[in-house]
Amino acid sequence: MKPWRPNSRLAAVATLALGATAVAAGSFFAARWSAGSESVTAGPQLEPAATVTTGGASAALPAEPTSFPPGWAGPYQDADRLKPRYGQVINGIAVGGTVVPDNGFCTGRSARWIDPERARGTPVWIEPGYLPADALEGGVPRHVEAQAVECSAGVAWLEVTYGRSAAPDVTERLARGESWFDIPTGGFIRILRTQGSGPAAHSALAADRWYEATINGLPAAVGRPILDRGLGDGMVVMWDAEHNLTTVILALNLSTAELLKVAEGLK
Amino acid sequence: MTGRRLALTVFAAAAMVGAVAGLLTARPADATTAASLAVHPGAATYLNCGWHGECLTPTSGVALDWRKTGDKSIYWRSWAYAIPEGSYAKGVIVNRSATCTETDVDISSPVDYTYRGSEMYVHAATEISGVAFVLTGTTWGTWFARYIGYTVGSEGNGQCPWTAEHLHQRAYWENVSSQSRNTSLYPSAINSGTYSDITSQGKQQDYATWTY
How far is CA B36 from CA A7, B77, B141, in A? Predict the structure, then answer.
């Protein structure tokens, strides 16, 4: 049997094809590399989806953040989550996870949703005198959502939510060294006013974040966000005994100072 | 043309084709991440009431009511796409009960940078408020499900409109490019029905896209 010998022309074509393929592949990856595709990591590099952030055993907050890599808020949220959340009375106002406000105007199952506009002119109507700039668009409150409930004795509560816009270049500004707290990163401000529910508000804030205050001459309980500069939920509860009105302001990622300005601006 | 010249010509052409293809498929240094998030119903498969504000006296709105009988558990369920692939968002479970019992999942993307919105589960409580999870997206879609809380058997003080145990679910979006509700699949207020495959693609309740 004769040994197999490749046809010389076939061998030349095959060699040419292999070489061309190798050159093309080399150029392909060289071009991608030179364009920076391998060096770009626009998204955060964190745990896979199935990983749950569980936090440590200590309830003490870490020191104030000075840098903001992706996931920077996790340790603060974890530490806060481990704090106790019992019911307590702050400045005559009951707050906490075990607090159930009075039923006030609502007896049985008389509560029903109504058009929020029907709350206009009633004691629960909400008109903020101050909102931070990122909650305004063209000078008017941005992205408003509202809901209202009426019971047998009248409009029982009104809730209005104001959205806060974020800067489009948060990632770039953080990379340049700006503080996360100095950049608009979005969030919301929700204001709830109820009639007949007494000096009480259900709250999931850690017990040690509450303190007494007087706002617009009314007794108030102020619940700081996790970090005063504006991480996590913050809350203000004001009690107007004369008008039997409870006002609650809940805001995500808003500083304590701004939260108080919103409360002070409420009519 | 000699064999050597032919080979040089072919190699040069191959190099150009390869380089052009490489440049066309490369991401520039200032490339953005494109994310899309589809959030599915958090409860069981029976829809008590289609898109509504309130169902007893039907008003148009952005929430769906899902029946809860027996199993009270509520789950975050989502499909996510991200280009490039990676851990593009974080969800934080938050007890945000006020007049009604409410558990929210706050979404930030990039993680801990920009608030994108909340999926809101009304008449649902949670014992794991503050727990967070990271969402990963891929170009072909990634499914993720996680227990977040449970429906309540009564609503506290009677100021919250409520008649029987169910999940009232809605979304609130901020800082997104687009948002939508699955009005083509789920009906308007009052209408109900069973959706046996609510975890399948296309059976989402709420949807949003954004870039960063």
Answer: 56, 14, 9
* pLDDT tens series, chain A, 267 aa: 334 444 555 455 555 555 555 555 444 444 333 333 322 222 232 333 333 333 333 457 888 899 999 999 999 999 999 999 999 999 999 999 888 888 777 887 788 889 999 999 999 999 999 999 999 999 999 888 999 999 988 999 999 999 999 999 999 999 999 999 999 999 999 999 999 889 999 999 999 999 999 999 999 999 999 999 999 999 999 999 999 999 999 999 999 999 999 999 998
Contact A16, B4 (CB under 8 A): no
The reported pTM is 0.81
- Whether the bond between B58 and the residue before it is cis, its omega within 30 degrees of 0, is no
Please, are residues A256 and A228 in contact by the beta-carbon 8 Å criterion? yes
Which of A107, A147, A201 is closest, CB to CB, to B158? A107
What Cα–Cα distance (Å) separates residue A256 from each residue in A127, A186, A240, B115, B127?
Answer: 20, 16, 21, 18, 26
In the structure encoding, which two tokens stand for residue A95, read together?
Answer: 């707050």
Contact B110/A43, CB-based, under 8 Å? Answer: yes
**Is the CB of A23 less than 8 angstroms away from the CB of B15?**
yes
Calculate ∠ Cα B143-B147-B149, nearest 5°: 140
The whole-angstrom separation of Cα A130 and Cα A236 is: 15
Closest-CA distance of chain B to residue A1, Å:
33
Q: What distances in angstroms separate CA B182 from CA B39, B49, B57, B195, B198, one per listed residue?
A: 10, 14, 22, 13, 12
Asked if A152 has any chain B CB less than 8 Å from its own CB, the reply is no
**Distance of residue A45 Cα from the nearest chain B Cα, in angstroms:** 6
C-beta atoms of B87 and A248 within 8 A = no
Least confident of A134-148, B1-15, B134-148, B184-198: B1-15
